[in-house]
Specification:
The chain is mainly α. The chain has one helix at residues 3-58. The longest helix has 56 residues, at 3-58. It is rod-shaped, with a radius of gyration of 26 Å.
Length: 59
């Protein structure tokens, strides 16, 4: 095995580790954004329901 082969193997290992870390970070960000969107939709629905309940009681 010459020096270039060793550096190539190490480069591949480092690339796989960095790619694995980046994919984990990306999926975490996407999952957080998805949860945030669901929370926003549920909060909007709850707000509209509460507003309609209090509006009907005032009338």
């Amino acid at each position: 095995m010459n020096k270039n082969t060793i550096w190539t193997i190490l480069g591949v290992i480092v690339a796989v580790v960095i790619a694995f870390w980046l994919v984990n970070v990306l999926f975490s960000v996407i999952w957080f954004a998805f949860k945030l969107a669901i929370v926003a939709v549920v909060a909007l629905i709850v707000f509209l329901v509460l507003r309609s309940i209090f509006r009907s009681r005032e009338s």
